[in-house]
Structure formats: C-alpha cells, structure tokens
Write a structure and sequence with these properties.
The structure is a single chain. This protein has 484 residues and is an alpha/beta fold. 42% of the residues lie in helices and 12% in strands. It has a seven-stranded parallel beta sheet. Strands 14-13-12-15-16-17 form a six-stranded parallel beta sheet, sandwiched between helices. A hairpin with a 2-residue loop joins strand 4 (102-105) and strand 5 (108-111). The longest helix is centred in the middle third of the chain and has 26 residues, at 196-221.
C-alpha cells in the first residue's frame, strides 16, 4: 500500500525501470512524460486526499448556461477568432502564467516573477503574456500584454475534430503496464482512462490538433523564447512541445519547491536521446538545492540544463526600503489541500499560540482565499482570533513579512526557500517539508518539529529563544548575470 510521497516516487520510478516506457509513442510523440505526471498527481490525491474528510475548499454550485447561451457563446467565439488571430503581434518573448502567480502591488495585479524580469531587462516592447484572467486588463500590470488563446483554441479544436482514423497503438509492454496498474487498488482507477484505445483517441482529438494550433500560433508570433510558470498542464506541455519542435527556447521559471520528491522536476532518468517533447529545455531555479534536483538527471543529457537565477520577487524587495512597520510576530504560511484545517491548527498549535501570546500573521495560499471566513470562524471558536492577523498577512508582500518576522512557520510551502533568502529561519511542521528542504535544515536555516509530539510547545519555544533575527548569513543566490 502506497502511503507517502517517498513511496509514490519509488513506485513510479520502478515502473520506469521495469518497462520500456520510451517505446510508448505514436508518430514519434512520447506518451510517458504526460502519463507519469498524471499518475504522480493521481497518487498524491489517492494517498493524501482520501483520508481527509473535511470539506474545505468547497465550491459553490456552478450555474450552467442555457442551450441558447452556449450556442451564442460558440457563435461569438467563431466570429471573434479571426480578429484575435489578426491582432497577434510578433514578439521575441512569450510569458505563460496564471493569476495565482500575481499579487496586489501598487494598485495592480503584479506577476511576482515575470513582471520583475520584464521591467529589469526592459522587455515590455518585445514581450507578451499568454494568460487567462477574468480581471479587467486595466487592473493588471502591463495588462495590454495579455492574450488569452482559449476561445481560439476551442474553435480550432471543433474545426479539426477527427471522427476516426486507422491509427492504432498496440504494444505488449504497455498492456503489461495496464495489467500492473489494474491489479493495484490504488491505481486501477487511473489506468481505466489510459487503455490503448483511449490513448489513441486522446492523441487524435487533443494532442495532434493542439500541437497544430500552437505551432501556427508560434509561427505567427515568431518568438525566440517561451518562459512558463508551472509547465505541467496539458496545454502548457503541448505548447512547449510545439516550441521545442520549432527550436524556440523553452524555460520553466521556478514557482515553488523543486525537491527530489516532485516528479515533475526530479528523476527524469529515462530521457531519450532526442528528448521528451513536452519538457522545458531550461530551468531557472531559486537556489542551488533546486538546481541540484534538475542537474541529477539533466547532466546526462545535452538537451537540458538548469541555472540559479534567484527569486526575482525576493530580490526586488531586497532593494526596496522597508515600509512594513509591524515587528515581533510569527509568520505562518498556510497550505491548501491536502493539508486540512485541523492539521493547520491542531490542538497543539492552538495551545502554542495561547502559550506564546505573540501575534501570529497567518498568510493564506492563493487557493485558500475562498476559505477566509471559514478559517476566521474556526480560529474564533478556538479562542485565538485576537492573536491572529490574516488580512494583513495575506495582502502584504511576502518578502517584507518575512524580513520582519521573528520566525517563519509552514508545513512544506516553498516559502521556506524565500524565508531563507530573507535571512529568516523556518520551523517546518510536516514530513514532506522535512524531506523537501533537507539542505536548508542541514544548513541551520530551517528546523523540523513534529506538531504531534508531547513536547512540541517546549521545542518550538526553544527554537524561538535560540534564534536571533537576521543572524543567518545573507545569501545571494543568482549565478547568472544576463538572462535575456
């Protein structure tokens, strides 16, 4: 029974060793990297979500459009698409991101990675964004650079819909792979969607037309570089595949932990000589430990490389005079699912908050913003709401919050790296964090405590007592001078 991220990793890598995964292809397109990434996240949901019965992150019922409204929307998209294509500019740089990568800064929604680089290198006239956003462009930093290809893609897919072909995929090792996953209670629900027949259908109806769409898109724009935050959605991976085929430089900008447990970044040990189409060729990392995760496999291939460029958002705030007046507080960076509310605020953590009597700045993850009132009510019922500052902690710039905090606390958020860069020690509360940030723990820039231990409060208090603010040596992480 798979019960941890370590075991998920071992299970998937054992599959790679056991089966000739690079034989699973159609017309030269390798299926394995997409299958592997999807299996990785499927198993995380199976292992970490299935035991959590709390209904946080609950979604409101979605009101469906009427049939007439749907037809009207499709008709609008059909007529809008030629206009959309006609106004696509020629640009040297395409940046791909989501609103979740933005923060409120100077009255605008500001991409804390790419907007910093665009301004630093003077790229505004040479750049554009692919980003889907419901926020008016006037409220977004450089909103005039945003292009949303979703409507155009849907119209393209409808026009290119393939009813049936003579294409087949028959591979005995793949059938053995199917049998292996079917015999496992934790994976049989996954593999039912990836039979040979369904794989061919997905390839015909999604992969081929999307590659065609993205190829036409890139040929129209003629970029030199495609930079992406979080590459592993289907559209992003196929956009990368199209860019790689056209010899457009593809770059993944780090947005969170890249530990040896994260199989989107770690242990691509079976990369073929010609490379996996859907993987970015270059990885821009925050720190050396993240780069080491990539180097462990990329150094065996001439196609892939990693570079430490630092964290653009953190580096920006190192140059800005401090304006955040609050001090002497604990900063707690929360995690969304699968970490539950009762884990985030266990009885030991609640007792700790009461015992210390210090202000706790509780910062929500972007995916938790819809839970704000639920969390506030929970903390009020626990009798600690007077000690907690949620709104300020969630809205203020993270680097400034980290700079003024006595200590930083999280389960396994990538904010551990950012805290280290701001010379602030982190107390890690989850085994995944202990494994993911072992290098920072060994360097004394973080410490792991089990919140379920009987002496947790005493241990936590001791760490605070032994920690002197800004005692950590300042570390300049960037080893690259010019990125563009």
């Amino acid at each position: 029974m798979i019960s941890s991220r370590d075991e998920i990793k071992d299970f998937i890598l054992e599959i790679e060793d056991r089966f000739p995964v690079n034989e699973w292809s159609l017309n030269g397109f390798y299926f394995w990297p997409i299958l592997r990434i999807r299996l990785f996240f499927y198993l995380i949901r199976q292992v970490e979500y299935q035991t959590k019965k709390e209904t946080s992150n609950a979604k409101l019922p979605h009101k469906k459009r009427s049939g007439f409204a749907q037809k009207l929307a499709k008709l609008y998209a059909v007529f809008y698409t030629p206009f959309w294509w006609s106004r696509l500019p020629k640009k040297k740089h395409i940046f791909v991101a989501q609103d979740a990568h933005r923060v409120n800064y100077k009255g605008k929604r500001y991409n804390r990675f790419f907007d910093v680089l665009i301004k630093k290198y003077g790229l505004e006239q040479e750049s554009m964004y692919f980003e889907t956003s419901k926020i008016p462009s006037s409220h977004i930093e450089a909103g005039h650079l945003l292009y949303d290809y979703d409507k155009a893609l849907q119209v393209f897919l409808r026009k290119k819909r393939i009813k049936s072909t003579n294409l087949t995929f028959e591979n005995s090792s793949y059938r053995d792979f199917i049998n292996t996953l079917e015999s496992n209670e934790q994976t049989k629900g996954f593999i039912v969607n990836y039979t040979e027949k369904r794989l061919v259908k997905w390839y015909e109806r999604k992969v081929v037309p999307k590659l065609d769409f993205f190829s036409k898109l890139l040929q129209k724009i003629q970029p030199q570089q495609l930079s992406i935050l979080c590459y592993y959605s289907e559209n992003n991976m196929l956009l990368i595949a199209a860019a790689n085929a056209l010899n457009v430089k593809t770059v993944e900008m780090q947005h969170g932990p890249q530990s040896p447990l994260h199989l989107c970044y770690a242990s691509w040990n079976k990369v073929p000589v010609d490379g996996y189409q859907v993987l970015p060729r270059e990885y821009w990392c925050w720190d050396k430990a993240s780069k080491d995760t990539i180097d462990a496999w990329a150094n065996s291939s001439s196609l892939y490389k990693a570079a430490v460029i630092g964290n653009p958002w953190v580096d920006l705030w190192k140059e800005i005079p401090a304006t955040f007046s609050e001090e002497n507080y604990i900063l707690y960076s929360l995690q969304p699912k699968p970490v539950s509310l009762s884990q985030l605020f266990s009885e030991n953590i609640i007792d700790l908050m009461k015992e210390l009597g210090l202000p706790w700045f509780v910062r929500l993850h972007p995916r938790q913003l819809g839970e704000l009132e639920t969390i506030k009510t929970f903390l009020k019922n626990k009798g600690v709401s007077e000690l907690v500052r949620i709104d300020e902690a969630t809205q203020a710039a993270l680097p400034q919050l980290l700079a003024n905090a006595i200590i930083h606390v999280t389960h396994y958020s990538g904010t551990v790296i950012e805290a280290s860069q701001m010379q602030t020690r982190t107390i890690i509360l989850h085994p995944i964090g202990k494994q993911s940030f072992s290098a920072l723990i060994e360097a004394g820039r973080a410490v792991y405590l089990n919140p379920e231990n009987e002496d947790f409060i005493q241990q936590f208090t001791s760490v605070i007592r032994e920690t002197t603010k800004n005692e950590l040596p300042e570390t300049r992480y960037s080893t690259v001078k010019d990125l563009f």
